[in-house]
Amino acid sequence: MNESDVSAPSPITSYADAPTRTLTASGTTFAYRELGPRGGVPVVFLVHLAATLDNWDPRIIDPIAKTRHVITFDNTGVGASSGQVPATIEAMADDAYTFIAALGFDRIDVFSFSMGGMIAQDLVLRHPDLVRRLVLTGTGPRGGKDMDKVVGTTYWDLLRATLTRSDPKEFLFFNRNDTGKRAAKAFIARLHERTVDRDKPITTRAFRTQLKAIRDFGRSAPSDLSQLTLPTLIANGDNDRMVPSVLSEDLHRRIKGSELIIYPDSGHGGIFQFHANFAPIAANFLSP
């Protein structure tokens, strides 16, 4: 049999089927997943507060992985990654860079959500030649007005979720009207489509450290986002209680040439509620 008779295995394009791998760099063992065809510029996903590998919506990941090499990973000290959660967003960005460099990439695209969008901004500012295209969703700029109130909002919604035996993301990410409640239930169900090799949940200590880092980011002096000249797509719902929707508009004003999408009747998880519309837009924006 010659080489032409042996076909290469088809790439995994379903996030539910992507195996969890590990990589050690600078003393930290990072847990990560890869899917989609290899080659070209990969898309690295930067995740939200308290999130592990299992918190990415497959209806967002899978459409992008049809044509792109997608990489997700657990931040330091979260899920199956070792170490302690950094105390600042800047340090989280440094850890993300360590992971990306250890994989051997010097050029990537970034898809980020919420806290991941804060990390993404610092990553681009600290390594301006690293990121080719940037997606910022459900997030805001350093020093953004009322971003530091995320602590009170988060603990209030954690209480509401406990009292109703619900997932906190149903309160934090979605409106509490009929439309939002249906979208929340569908989103939570999608997060459980993966039934094997699931990640470890974040610890309480790690969660509190991340939350304080976000609060401090919100109270810090603004970054000079005029330095960001790369193509940038910004999206959010019109009623984001965690990172106020006006901060997405603020990002749009600060990042020259950026695109902005605001989804109606939706909250922090607007891109998940409107995944059928947003995923193709994001995939097209990130196309080679």
What's the gist of this structure?
With 288 residues, the protein is an alpha/beta fold. It has helices at residues 58-65, 89-102, 115-126, 150-164, 169-172, 178-191, 204-219, 246-254, 270-273, 275-285, and strands at residues 20-25, 28-35, 43-46, 70-73, 108-113, 131-137, 232-237, 259-263.
CATH superfamily: Alpha/Beta hydrolase fold, catalytic domain
Q: What count of helical segments does DSSP give?
A: 10
Determine the CATH topology.
Rossmann fold
Question: Which range does the strand content fall in?
Answer: 15-25%
CATH class bucket: Alpha Beta
What is the helix fraction of residues, given as a range?
Answer: 25-40%
Question: How are helices and strands ordered from N to C?
Answer: EEEHEHEHEHHHHEHEHH
Account of the protein in words:
Keywords: Hydrolase. InterPro entries: AB_hydrolase, AB_hydrolase_1, AB_hydrolase_fold. It comes from Microbacterium pumilum. This is Alpha/beta hydrolase. It is built from ten helices and eight strands. The chain has 288 residues and is α/β, with parallel strands linked by helices. It has one domain: Rossmann fold, CATH 3.40.50. An eight-stranded mixed β-sheet has the order 1-2-4-3-5-6-7-8, with helices on both faces. β3, α1 and β4 form a beta-alpha-beta unit.
